[in-house]
Automatic annotation (TrEMBL):
One of its GO terms (cellular component) is endoplasmic reticulum. This is Calumenin-A-like protein. It comes from the Eukaryota. Keywords: Calcium. Gene3D superfamilies: EF-hand. One of its GO terms (molecular function) is calcium ion binding. Signal peptide: none annotated. Residues 78-113 form the EF-hand domain. The keyword Calcium applies. InterPro entries: EF-hand-dom_pair (IPR011992), EF_Hand_1_Ca_BS (IPR018247), EF_hand_dom (IPR002048). SUPFAM superfamilies: EF-hand (SSF47473). It holds the Pfam family EF-hand_7.
Amino acid sequence: ELLEEDKVLWKAADINNDNRLDAKEFAAFNNPEEFEHMSETLVGQMFERRDHNKDGFIDFKEFIADENGNIPDSMTEHYISEKDKFENDYDQNHDGRLDFNECINWIIPNNTEIALNEALHLISSADTNHDNRLSIDEIVDNHDVFVGSEATDFGQQLHTHVNDEL
């Protein structure tokens, strides 16, 4: 089954249909969630695994169930959190099920707005001279802000930097 899924991903990644993957195509095969042209394939594969009643939608039970079809206890934090996401974030038309396009937002979320907001937060928190740029000194002086941020991989990105970017 996994081999068949990989064959489908390979075919979708092979943009020029030469049955070989160049570096960019291999990147799409290896990290399909990072490439827009792979989204239909990823969501299609998810539908194959999750749409148990084959109605073309993912209902909440199909959404919350694990790979063995087990549904967590409705009193758990995980269940409550996922139900909230299902109802308020993913089910955009509020019909109690996810269609193909709604599943794209679930499987391949757009993190651009989140990243932008985090970057703006970091700048506003550490830009002490208010020039809308961060100097190395401002980053060092406010290291606690960066160490607590997912945008810097909790500080790990501060070890590898490009001077032009600072």
